[in-house]
Structures are given as structure tokens and as C-alpha cells.
Structure of DNA-binding beta-propeller fold protein YncE:
Amino acid sequence: MQHFVRVIVCLGLLIMLPLQSIAFASAPYKTETLSSDGGLIETQTAFTPLGEFLSGEEVVNPEDIFSDTNGFIYIADSGTKKVIVADENGNIQARIGEGVLEKPTGVFVDDNGDIFVADYAKEKVFRFNSIGELKGEFGKPDSPLFGKRSPYKPQKVGVDRRGNLYVISEGSTNGIIQLSQDGSFLGYYGVNNTEISFKSVIQNLLTTETQKSKMFMKTPPAPDNIALDKQGLIYSVTEGTENEVIKKLNVAGKNMLDPFISWDSTYQDITVDKDGNIFTLNSTGEIHEFDSFGNLLFVFGGTDDGSNRLGLFKQPTGITIDQNGKLYITDKERGMITVLEATAFAGQVHKGIALFKEGLYVESQQYWESVLELNSSFGLAHTAMGKSYYKQQNYEKALEEYKFAEDVYGYSDAFWEVRQAWMQEYLSSVLLILIGLIVIYYFIEYLDKKRKILDVPRNKWNEWKTKKLLSELLFLFKFFKHPIDSFYYLKRKQYATVLSATILYIILFIEYLIAKFQTGFIFSYHGLGEKSLLVEIGIVFVPLLLFILVNYMVSTINDGEGRFKDIYIGTIYSLAPYLVFIIPITILSNVLTYNESFIYIFSIRIIYVWCLIILFIMIQEIHNYTFSETVRNIFVTLFGMVIMILVVFIVFVLFDQVYDFVYSIMKEVMMRV
């Protein structure tokens, strides 16, 4: 019996161990990443809460946090009016600035161990040595280049290898303030750009110089935080803007990242790990991780809902990452610091990125394969795998991976190699076949002249062309050379009917679907998502029907001679270039690379312009307008289409509200009965 009890106890312990492990590794938030199509999808947890750092009364209102290369953590605490220094285990090593600091809001430690503290209240940056002795202070520059009215309210600070200071000052719209070691003003660095809106462009066009001088001059937003990597590159975040919210600045102060790297405009802090990966913290407690090229890797964290769970924050203010890859996030309202640790999944991603960044694509492949085993939709992993296969000259596999990643440029390079190999193998055979076909063509033409061997099929074809419906459909080709005469015959001689026009509308829709879904990957739209036939029907036929209806009504008012039937038939025949050439161009798009994209783009533009010209002629000839009357008719038609869309939308909204009102009344009556 005792032996049986021991067995049960052991089994119970074995069962409990993995459960405890899972509970420890669980996170109170979901982690998201970019999928192959550029949308956010949920993925495996990248960072899990490890615990609190310096819990208790040691920290009151943490404003900023910094980790040096020796493993020490520095916390600027405005509540205790000092900088707290602790080791990675949470043991306090020193308290810096007691009696000196008033409201420390930023902290940075240089390679020599000197501690720089931005004090918002005293409007200075203080410099302490590693044991807390005050070595110097940096007040407002007295240089005339700085400007007497320029604000100097230090919030954050950073120091480069040369000892130059980069000060984030509240309201400094000129950019980051750059000071030398002795406090001399060196200039402004990394100034943000003024956002240009459609409204400002219109105002600029319509106002005089005098009016412009009286208008409020829009200034660029001031940067809010700063970080430096081991190469000395400077990173900044700016709150309340839509472009360049994250900047990676070179020596000249130019941004090296995509200006639209992120949709978030509430970033509070930024930090960079030893591999150049960028971590940002926003006001809602979300942490966004990017690689050194600006590709989004993970989104995790969130706002505390009152449950006080680790990994959720009420007023996040600072973020840093130590040499071991642990994240430290300060929460000012809760007076605590949370430590997050990377999971094995994130570790595989980071190892793959580190090799990928160095151009070691083949060596990184094993890590990306592990990532894809866990999440097959991880977009960056497919791009990396594509480069790996490309490096190994396995271009077919590279094409597949680039297509998964929707990487047009990589796909184009791999496709060029595949096409080149195909041409080397089959081009001579293709040329021989073409030459043979040309010889056969001229031989048949010669025999036809001598013995009339094609008279029978020629007579059959001429007989078929005389059939009314086929002749009406073939009448489409007359619009290429003689559009004016063709519309005359269409209107006066009835060379086309509603039936033939309807068939052409159906052909138009079929060709539209073929062009949309069979265009070469390089030139196709990659955000198709779910394909709905009703949606595609609406995209094609709603604008056409709207144009026909509105143009008929406008032309009736403005003495147009065209009947509804004439406009209905004339509109589809105006699209003759699209109907004839879109399929060949679609086929062509499947054999072109990105470097040859001008051929496809130019061809498409020619088709659209050609159709618009014929459509213009159609309106002019059908309604018997002059040139100026035709132009006016087109503008009024377009305006009428917009008005009709608005009317339909308003009617729909009103009907929906009436339906909800009637439904709620009926529901109330049923409940009372």
C-alpha cells in the first residue's frame, strides 16, 4: 500500500512540474508579428514577465532607466530625487544625486562610467562619476546660435564616444540639442520635418505672401526621447506625429529608417540591444521590437486593467535592455520596474537576424526553419529563407519563399535567374520553331496564290462574319482606326445592339478577373485577402452603371442627342483597347522582371489613356456636342456621380436607423407582451 501511495505522489509531482512551468512562462498579453501580407497576426510569446526589479519602497516615481555594459541598472526617480544604481540581481549599489537633484527625468552612462542626469526642474544636466561625486553641470548654452528664447528644459540625455552630449529638451522644435564636453553649443541635431497636409498645400496655393506671414507658422514636433547603440548611432522617438516617429540618425543627422516605419504616435522611450534591434515603449504599455533595418518583429505588452499583473502597465515611462537581453520597463504610477525575459522562440528569431544582418544567409537558415516550424506565417523568416536559397543558387525555392514573403524585389532577382536558365536551355529551340512557323506561313501563302488552297476556310470565315451578332462583336476593332466614323455608324446605322454590348460587358468582367488574379506576381496587388465575386462585380459594374445613368440624365438636361441605349452601347465599345489588349499584357507581366516594369506600366497607361480618348469622342459624337460642351458634360457627370453616391449613402444610413428603431420597438412590445 505504501509503495502504491509513493507511485501516486511521484506521478502527481511529475504532472505538476510542467503545469507550474507553463504558468510561469505565460504572459497576460498576446504577442503579434507581421504576416507575409503585411498584417498583424498573433504569434508565440516573445518576452515573458520574469518579476519585479527593486520592489518595495526603493523606487517611487521612476522616470527613466538605463543599463550599462557592466550589468548595472540606473533608475532616474523623481520621487526620491536621485538616481538609484543596482546590479542585475536587484542589489542596490549606490544612490546618486542626493541633495543635488530636484526632478531627475533622464539618465545615461558613458563608456567611462560617468553618469549624466537630466534634471527637468533645475533645467540642467548633471555629470557624476561612478561613485556619485559631482563632476560638472550643463546649463542653458549662452551661445547666440542657441537663441535667447529657445527653451532649455532637459528631459533626456545621451552621450556619444567623443563625449558630446545630446539633450532632449521640452519644446525644442529645432531638434536635439548638441553640446560639447565643456558645455559649448555645437548645434541642433536630427530636427524633425514639418508634416505637409492636403489642407496646408491648398492654403499655400490660395493665399498671398502677406496672408501667409500673418498665418500661424507650423513648427516641427520636438523629439521626446533618445538612445545610442554600440556603434554610436543615435535613435530618437517623437510623440504626436505620423511620420518619422522612430529615427535612426547618421553622423549628418539624416534618418536611415523608413519614415513610415510605424503607425504608433505615442512612443515614450526607445532602447537598442547589442545586435542593433530596436525596442520602443508607447503610452499604453505596448512594446514594439524592430530589427536594425526597421522591420517589425514583435508587438507585446499592454495597459493594466486593474489586475496588477506583471507585463501590464499604468503609466510606462522608460525601457532599457541589458547585455543578457532582459527588458526593464518603468511604471511611474505604480512605482515599479518590471523585468521581461526573451523566450526560446524570440531567441531563434534574434539569432537568425544577427546572422542575416551580417549577410550570412545560409548560416541563418537553420534558425529561420525553426521559426517557421512554430509560425509558418512569419513574414521576415520567409524573406530570409528566400535569400538563403538564392545564395545557394536554388532559385526555384527562392521564388517560393519570396512569394510567401511578398518580397517583390527578391522575387524579381530570383525570377531573372530562372528565366535566364530557361532561355539558355530552350531559346535556340524556340527560335527554330519560330523560323519554321514563318517558313510554313510563307509557303502556305505561296500555295494559296498559286492554287487557292485557302479559299474554302476563307469563304467560311467570310460567311461567319456576315452573321449579325458576330459582325457586331467584330465591329469593336473599327474603333482603333476610325472612332469618330464608328460612333456615327453605331448611332445612325445601328451597327451594334444591346445584346452585343451586353456580351462585351460580360467579356470585360471576365478579362478584369483574369487580369486581377493572373497578373505576374511582381506587378499584382498583394493585399487581395478573401476574394468575393459580388465585390468584384460591384467594382466593375457599379462605376459603369453610375456613369451611364448620370451621363444620360445630365445630357438630357443639356440638350444631348444620345439615348440611354446609345450611351450603354457606346460606353463598352469605348473600352475596346482594354478588351483587346489587357490579356496579352497580363501574359506579358508573367515574364518580366522588376527592372523591366516600365514596359508593363507604360502599356497599362497607354490602354487607359486610349480608352479615355475614345470615351471622350463617344460623348461628343453620341450627343452631338462641341469640344467645350463635351468637357463640361464630363465634369458635370463626374460631379453627379459623387452626389449620387452621397445620396445613396445617406439613404442607406437613414434606412438602417429606421430599421433599428422599428426593430427596437417591436422587441420592446414582444417583451412586454
Residues 1-25, 212-217 have pLDDT under 50 and may be disordered. Residues 52-141+150-192+219-342 form a domain with the Neuraminidase fold (CATH 2.120.10.30). The chain has three domains: 52-141+150-192+219-342, 358-466, 468-655. Residues 627-672 form the longest helix (46 residues).
